[in-house]
Amino acid sequence: MDCEAAHAQLADRLTGTLTSEAAAALQQHLASCEACAREAQDASGTWSALADIPPMPPDSSAMRARFDTIVKAQTTSYAGWATYGLQIAAAIVLLAAGFLVGRQTSPTPVGDPAIAELREELRATRQMVSLSLLQQQSASERLRGITYTTQIDRPDSALVTALLDTLMHDTDSNVRLRTIEALKRFADRENVRRTAVNALAEPTSAPLVQIALIDFLVEANDRNAVTSLRHVADDAMTDKAVRAHAKWGLQQIG
After folding, report:
1. What is the pLDDT of residue 214?
2. Measured in whole angstroms, how far is the alpha carbon of residue 214 from the centre of its chain?
3. pLDDT tens, residue by residue, 77-103
């Protein structure tokens, strides 16, 4: 693999959409090419650092209209963001981040509307990538999507809805456990707590997931969970450890 081919695959590497063979070939090239390895490291750092960009209130009506369109598309069709969408999103983020760094290192007026607009669009792009990853068949990709959600400042309702859907319906216990952690910052929302109660009542939930849900509801001090906790505690078919934890939860909530 030459440097040009390696550079073309860096965006795919960020989103984890390379085949195992291509990823191995790229890694081999990076191990032998210091310049490409440095570029790959910079790209990865930029991708991760996007979450650290301090938010600024959007002040562009045109940007607001574009963002509303993005949200509408997310709510109506998550599945539309497949592999190609991930690659494009990664490329957009890298290009926009490079532009943002350039603008921040050159003299610009304080509160430059272009910078504010770019920050908002970067946030929206990160959210779209997260939503797309949550729809992937691979559990590791869904876990990555959940991790990205924790790095997004001011996520909108579309992202929270996707996390709630994952909590209720994902078939992988590790994914559901990570989702519970990601939802903790939204514990003040009534619909999030209600979904957690419903998930606890699901008979197919793994014991570790049920225990994590009990902890979530206790931390949220949700008194609406008392009935479900009592049902779990009294259900002879429920795992013994879960029943004991439900009784503990009832004592904590009072």
Report:
1. 95
2. 22
3. 444 444 445 554 555 555 455 544 444
Please report whether residue 200 resides in a domain.
no
Query: Among 7-11, 169-173, 195-199, 248-252, whose mean pLDDT is lowest?
Result: 7-11
Indicate the number of domains in the chain: 1
Whether 222 maps to a domain, the answer reads: no
Mean pLDDT calculated for residue range 156-177: 92
User: For the residues of the chain, what is the DSSP string, one character each?
Assistant: --HHHHHHTHHHHHHT-S-HHHHHHHHHHHHH-HHHHHHHHHHHHHHHHGGGSPP-----HHHHHHHHHHHHHHHH-STT--HHHHHHHHHHHHHHHHHHHHHHTS---TT-HHHHHHHHHHHHHHHHHHHHHHT-SSHHHHHHHHHHHTT-SS--HHHHHHHHHHHHH-S-HHHHHHHHHHHGGGTTSHHHHHHHHHHHH-TTS-HHHHHHHHHHHHHHT-GGGHHHHHHHHH-TTS-HHHHHHHHHHHHHH-
Distance from C-alpha of 175 to C-alpha of 180, rounded to nearest angstrom: 9
Q: Please report, rounded to a whole number, the percentage of residues in the chain having pLDDT higher than 70.
A: 65
Q: What is the pTM of this model?
A: 0.58
Q: Which domain holds residue 115?
A: 3-186
**Is there a domain that residue 15 lies in?**
yes
Query: What pLDDT is recorded for position 173?
Result: 92
Place of tokens 């939204």: 186
Q: Look at residue 138 and tell me if it is in a domain.
A: yes
